[in-house]
Amino acid sequence: MSEAQISSMSVSGPGGQNRLDIKNGCILRLTKAPGRSADDLYKGIQSSDGGVRCDSLKELASVSRDVTFAQEFISRDGHVLLVKIVEDSKENNQIMTHTLTGFMELMDHGIVSWENLSAVFIKKIAGFVNSKLTDESMQQVSLDILENMVLSSRKLFLQVKQEVTMERLIAHLQVANQQIQTKAMALLMALLQTAEDADRQEMFAFLNKKNLRQYIYKNIILSSSPVQDEMAHYLYVLQSVTLNHLEARMRTPLDCYNQ
């Protein structure tokens, strides 16, 4: 292997980033250096060939879990490229799903602030959640993105609350797809936990009016599939938030003249 070829590759293994730290006997894997890989995928995503774009975005969704690659790709404004793909919404469902997944993986590293996202981007993601015709894989990752937005700041909470209706989230709890049910419950809990008292009061009033408990009991607890750990956690969170919401009423002194 030539010196030029070696310089464009990286060695990954249990020893960490410093090759001198790698112990004898470790199994090593030769891969493209993160910078080279980031360059190639950045170009591939902009290709005029739909197949190349799809393959590049699919690979991006996989390699973006690595923080070193993520730093290289983001330093080239690769995340901005993904945001533009979503804002334009010209790609097919498969390409869009890979785009959203890659974007979520990049954002998970905390390198870029969620608050830098445009109102157009937020509206597009909310549109994927609100539409009944959206591909299930797209809906799942879109719900995940919105949850992270809500947990990031009050400003994003207000934007997401305005764009995604409680009624639509309740509808997502009634589908057969457990992953969508779980992501919808996660977003619902994020909204309830982040809301200030007035907003929370309003949301609980709506959820009680729509009899949320009935849908949870029928479509989740009585489902033919067992309740997964993640969903069980969110059901516990719902119980906690509900009881905390009722605490003030519980501590109100008894008034024999008030029915």
Commentary on this structure:
Helices cover 67% and strands 3% of the residues. The longest helix is centred in the last third of the chain and has 22 residues, at 229-250. It is mostly helical and 259 residues long. It has a two-stranded antiparallel sheet. Helix 6 runs parallel beside helix 8.
Features:
ELMO_ARM; two-stranded antiparallel sheet; 67% helix; ELMO_domain-containing; 259 residues; mainly alpha
Shape from CA axes? elongated
- Note the run of SSEs as H and E: HEEHHHHHHHHHHHHH
Distance between the termini: 86 Å
Poorly predicted regions are 1-9, 12-16
Question: If you compute it from the alpha carbons, what radius of gyration comes out, rounded to the nearest whole angstrom?
Answer: 23 Å
> What's the number of extended β-strand segments?
2
Strand order of the largest sheet: 1-2
Q: What structural category do the secondary elements indicate?
A: mainly alpha
Mean pLDDT: 89
Describe the sheet with the most strands.
2 strands, antiparallel
Strand content: under 5%
Percent helix among the residues?
A: 55-70%
Number of helices: 14
Please write out the topology.
Blueprint: H1 3-7, E1 9-12, E2 29-32, H2 34-45, H3 50-63, H4 67-75, H5 78-88, H6 93-107, H7 119-130, H8 136-152, H9 154-163, H10 166-172, H11 178-194, H12 197-209, H13 212-221, H14 229-250
Antiparallel strand pairs: 1-2
Overview in brief:
With 259 residues, this protein is mostly helical. The chain is built from 14 helices and two strands, in the order αββααααααααααααα.
